[in-house]
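Predict the 3D structure for this chain.
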Amino acid sequence: MKISENLRLQEGQLLLKRWKNLVKLNLFIKFHISKS
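Done. Predicted structure below.
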């Protein structure tokens, strides 16, 4: 595996984590808005 490929893989995993956190945050906010 080349170094550039490895870096791209790590970037992808970071983006995935960030995206999942955003989704969780959105669901959390929607849940609280609909509850009140």
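The mean pLDDT is 93.
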